[in-house]
């Protein structure tokens, strides 16, 4: 079912609300909302769930206006960060709860619970005897997912479902949640603060900041075509450099893996100790001159600490470069330029010491 | 390093045996002392309850027997025992009916003046019991409740609702809201969600606090004496009367009978009381 959100607003005293959100969740797709803490992503999710009443705006499930409908009448279900399973019930009863409320016949409940358990890869054999707390964290989240899916909801909401799990389980469950969501063909909204999770799982990524949508699009679009400084800086392992492009002062966002270290230079060009060193235009991109101060082995590659003027950033390379002055290359399409002024919303200034535009 | 490993060595090495015996002996003496301090008065109660004749300066009763036990079980004591248990049951039930919804709301909703409300409940405990109860008695005279079971139950509720609410608030606070949200999202109404999810999860806490209330009511004396006596007699009041009449044996038997449910219920409660309830206790 297609979900439409129109000019949805909810204000709080502490500014963690949402402001004029317009968004459409495509039918059968997984939309990920990602943003820093306090950006309003959880408020948006809980408003969709019906757990928070918005101040204004509208929510439509299909053609139906559900803006002020109570959560139990929306047909949306939720997967929580802390699983929210019921320890006093067996796993079977946990999953059958929603079906019993819908007065499903016992025989059908049995069939559907067994089916959904197979699909989330939990052994259906002893679920009537075992309780949720007898399963591992990853399994508990699968059970919670089964409980949310078995009632065939119009919308599946997931509130940071993998945050409590360790890295390996998280990696695996990412893929599995994605597969399960696709096999059910269910419209899903996934809230996370982990940009990698959002990019890898979603059909559609929505980047939120300070209660507004900063950018929305496919994972590739938001990653490769950031429309704002915030998006460019938030996604990927990004750094901000204040540089001169010709006569203009610019903010340049660059990702660690995009900048390549080239040939050695004899010395730093004049004026490069300033806060706005020059970015020279070369064939196919840009060239900066910087000083490699040291490097770290990070497993897949070497991470070099590079100083350009008074600014420091990291550049990854397959081989280790000795300390010294190098020419650095940045392909044209990987250079994201932004005006230095209007720093109201940005957090990018943290890499620079004592720079004011 | 060597000294450490030696200390960890089990009893096998002969060198340690002397020190070990001395330590064991010391521990036994200390334990016996503690046992005497705790059990001494209780033991004297037990002896008194079986003493038929016991005059000074004899260190032991001159005659042993169970005649006082049978006397107690034949006489008014049984009435007092039964009414005490009935009252404690009634107080517990009413107290739960009042405090479960109230403490749930206090735990879940941002009620304005929440802290003040909770402190208000505590107020009767902040003053000495006697003035609070005598004032209550004045009120109850006006409503003709003095000397009635209703009056005794009401005076017990004054004290018990307080700590019932205080413990239950922390019980409900220890249950995450997301478990309720999960059930409403699946289609359950608020009421259904409360009865199928929240209340079952709160059961250990409910049992623990109802045991506390039951015991409080069973042992409550001041209020029962002021409101109930002489027309309605609970077990503690009965015991008091017996002791005042220098019937040491009757008083001892009653005291033992009063102690038993306390011991049994406290043992039960240990099973249900979770440490998180205690740590959350009084957190407003």
Automatic annotation (TrEMBL), chain A:
Domain ABC transporter: 3-235
Keyword Methyltransferase: no
PROSITE patterns hit by this protein: ABC_TRANSPORTER_1, ABC_TRANSPORTER_2
SMART domains tied to this protein: AAA (SM00382)
Coiled-coil region: none
Molecular-function annotations in GO: ABC-type quaternary ammonium compound transporting activity; ATP binding; ATP hydrolysis activity
Reactions listed under catalytic activity: a quaternary ammonium(out) + ATP + H2O = a quaternary ammonium(in) + ADP + phosphate + H(+)
Record field: transmembrane: none
Top-level EC class as recorded in UniProt: translocase
EC number: 7.6.2.9
Statement: the UniProt record of this protein carries the keyword ATP-binding: yes
Keyword annotations of the record: ATP-binding, Nucleotide-binding, Transport
Subunit and partners: The complex is composed of two ATP-binding proteins (OpuCA), two transmembrane proteins (OpuCB and OpuCD) and a solute-binding protein (OpuCC).
This protein's name: Carnitine transport ATP-binding protein OpuCA
From TrEMBL, chain B:
Membrane-topology descriptor: Multi-pass membrane protein
Chain ranges of the ABC transmembrane type-1 domain: 81-269
PROSITE patterns associated with the record: ABC_TM1
Protein name: ABC transporter permease
Transmembrane region(s): 24-51, 80-104, 116-141, 153-172, 193-216, 248-269
Record flagged with keyword Transmembrane helix: yes
Coiled coil: none
CDD domains: TM_PBP2 (cd06261)
GO BP term, example: transmembrane transport
SUPFAM superfamilies per record: MetI-like
Keywords tagged on the record: Cell membrane, Membrane, Transmembrane, Transmembrane helix, Transport
GO CC annotation terms, alphabetical: plasma membrane
Pfam families for the chain: BPD_transp_1
Family designation: Belongs to the binding-protein-dependent transport system permease family.
Recorded superkingdom: Bacteria
Localization (cell): Cell membrane
Principal subcellular localization: membrane
């Amino acid at each position: 079912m297609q979900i439409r959100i129109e000019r949805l607003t909810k204000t709080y005293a502490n500014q963690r609300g949402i402001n004029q959100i317009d968004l459409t969740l495509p039918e059968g797709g997984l939309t990920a909302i990602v943003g820093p803490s306090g950006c309003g992503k959880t408020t948006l999710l809980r408003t969709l769930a019906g757990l928070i009443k918005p101040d204004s705006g509208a929510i439509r499930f299909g053609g139906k206006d559900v803006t002020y409908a109570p959560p139990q009448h929306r047909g949306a279900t939720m997967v929580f960060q802390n699983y929210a399973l019921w320890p006093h019930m067996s796993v079977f009863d946990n999953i059958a709860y929603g079906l019993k409320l819908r007065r499903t016949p016992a025989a059908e409940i049995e069939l559907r619970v067994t089916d959904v358990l197979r699909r989330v890869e939990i052994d259906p054999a002893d679920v009537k005897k075992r309780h949720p707390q007898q399963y591992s964290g990853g399994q508990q989240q699968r059970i919670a997912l089964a409980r949310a899916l078995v009632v065939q909801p119009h919308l599946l909401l997931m509130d940071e479902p993998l945050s409590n799990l360790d890295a390996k389980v998280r990696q695996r469950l990412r893929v599995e949640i994605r597969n399960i969501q696709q096999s059910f063909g269910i419209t899903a909204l996934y809230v996370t603060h982990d940009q990698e999770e959002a990019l890898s799982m979603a059909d559609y990524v929505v980047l939120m900041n300070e209660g507004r949508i900063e950018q929305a699009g496919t994972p590739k679009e938001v990653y490769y075509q950031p429309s704002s400084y915030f998006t460019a800086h938030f996604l990927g392992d990004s750094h901000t450099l204040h540089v001169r492009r010709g006569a203009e002062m610019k903010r340049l966002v660059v990702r660690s893996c995009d900048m390549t270290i080239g040939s050695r230079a004899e010395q730093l060009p004049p004026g490069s100790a300033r806060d706005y060193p020059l970015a020279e235009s070369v064939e196919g991109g840009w060239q900066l001159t910087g000083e490699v101060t040291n490097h770290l082995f990070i497993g897949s590659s070497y991470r070099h600490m590079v100083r350009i003027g008074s600014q420091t950033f990291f550049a990854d390379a397959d081989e280790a470069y000795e300390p010294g002055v190098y020419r650095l290359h940045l392909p044209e399409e990987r250079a994201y330029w932004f005006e230095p002024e209007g720093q109201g919303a940005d957090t990018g200034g943290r890499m620079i010491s004592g720079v004011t535009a | 390093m060597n000294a450490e490993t030696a200390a960890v060595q089990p009893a096998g090495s002969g060198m340690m045996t002397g020190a070990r015996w001395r330590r064991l002996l010391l521990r036994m003496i200390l334990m016996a002392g503690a046992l005497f301090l705790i059990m001494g008065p209780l033991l004297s109660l037990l002896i008194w309850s079986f003493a038929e004749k016991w005059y000074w300066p004899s260190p032991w009763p001159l005659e042993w027997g169970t005649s006082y036990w049978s006397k107690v079980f034949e006489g008014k004591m049984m009435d007092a025992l039964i009414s005490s248990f009935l009252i404690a049951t009634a107080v517990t039930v009413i107290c739960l009916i009042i405090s479960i919804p109230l403490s749930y709301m206090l735990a879940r909703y941002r009620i304005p003046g929440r802290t003040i409300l909770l402190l208000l409940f505590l107020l009767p405990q902040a003053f000495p019991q006697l003035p609070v109860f005598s004032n209550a008695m004045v009120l109850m005279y006006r409503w003709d409740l003095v000397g009635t079971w209703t009056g005794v139950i009401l005076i017990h509720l004054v004290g018990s609702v307080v700590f019932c609410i205080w413990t239950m608030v922390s019980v409900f606070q220890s249950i995450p809201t997301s478990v309720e949200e999960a059930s409403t999202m699946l289609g359950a109404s608020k009421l259904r969600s409360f009865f199928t999810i929240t209340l079952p999860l709160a059961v250990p806490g409910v049992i623990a606090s109802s045991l506390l209330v039951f015991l409080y009511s069973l042992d409550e004396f001041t209020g029962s004496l002021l409101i109930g006596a002489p027309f309605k007699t609970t077990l503690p009041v009965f015991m008091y009367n017996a002791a005042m009449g220098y019937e040491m044996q009757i008083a001892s038997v009653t005291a033992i009978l009063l102690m038993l449910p306390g011991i049994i219920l406290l043992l039960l409660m240990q099973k249900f009381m979770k440490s998180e309830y205690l740590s959350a206790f009084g957190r407003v």
